[in-house]
Design goal:
The structure is a single chain. It contains five helices and six strands; from the N terminus they run αββαααββαββ. By secondary structure, the chain is mainly alpha-helical. The strands form three sheets. Strands 1-2 form a two-stranded antiparallel sheet. Strands 3-4 form a two-stranded antiparallel sheet. Strands 5-6 form a two-stranded antiparallel sheet. The termini are far apart.
């Protein structure tokens, strides 16, 4: 593989990861009601024109849309991982390295779940992949037993961060990306926020005046 081709594949994975990171930020800001919901008063593009009333969002609509934005970012990341592995290895399904086989099959099966039903993904497990367990080190695991035809659930493969880690694994370990952001300058967080699953905990300087003690 030529260096320029490898760099292009690495860039594609980075862009998919960037969209995922942005989707997470938008989802968090929307949930905390910090995300601006401004849209153009009037927007023309090509031969079409829409007015504010057609595209404006209520807060509850934005919260729903932000969740699906996160979901579509997950789909894009899975697709980018699958395509990257296909470009690196001629026959990833039968590769001698079990990590490569697992990385390919997990990303491919997640991609298939979204491709057939993007809003409500459904697992479509190929006969040769049923009742199998695909494992990539301690990064991600997918046990396909009984999954065919069932609604897609993050618990089946370990969740959004597992897929994010898989993308970085393919980019860094398989493609040898050395630009991994160690010297990246990023602004400090404006708020201290911890998130566990969908539970969001935000550090505050003082309790609200209407706060009540819970015994």
């Amino acid at each position: 593989m030529q260096l320029t081709e490898k760099k292009a594949i690495i860039l594609e994975l980075k862009l998919a990861e960037l969209q995922f990171r942005l989707a997470i930020a938008v989802r968090l800001a929307t949930t905390l009601e910090n995300q601006p919901l401004d849209v153009p008063t009037e927007w023309t593009h090509g031969k079409h024109r829409v007015l504010y009333e057609e595209i404006a969002l209520r807060q509850d609509q934005a919260d729903i849309a932000a969740n699906y934005l996160k979901q579509t970012a997950t789909y894009l990341m899975a697709l980018a991982i699958k395509e990257a592995i296909k470009k690196i290895y001629a026959d990833p399904k039968n590769h001698q390295d079990k990590n490569i086989v697992a990385a390919y099959q997990i990303s491919r099966l997640i991609r298939n779940a979204f491709a057939h039903s993007p809003i409500r993904p459904i697992w479509h497990i190929d006969p040769d992949c049923r009742d199998r367990k695909f494992v990539v080190d301690d990064i991600i695991t997918l046990n396909t037993k009984g999954l065919d035809g069932k609604p897609f659930d993050w618990r089946h493969y370990g969740g959004l961060l597992a897929l994010f880690r898989l993308s970085k694994y393919v980019r860094i370990q398989l493609l040898g990306d050395t630009d991994i952001g160690k010297n990246r300058k990023i602004p400090p967080p404006r708020n201290i926020i911890y998130q566990q699953g969908n539970l969001i905990l935000k550090k505050i300087d003082e309790l609200p005046k209407d706060a009540k003690r819970i015994y």
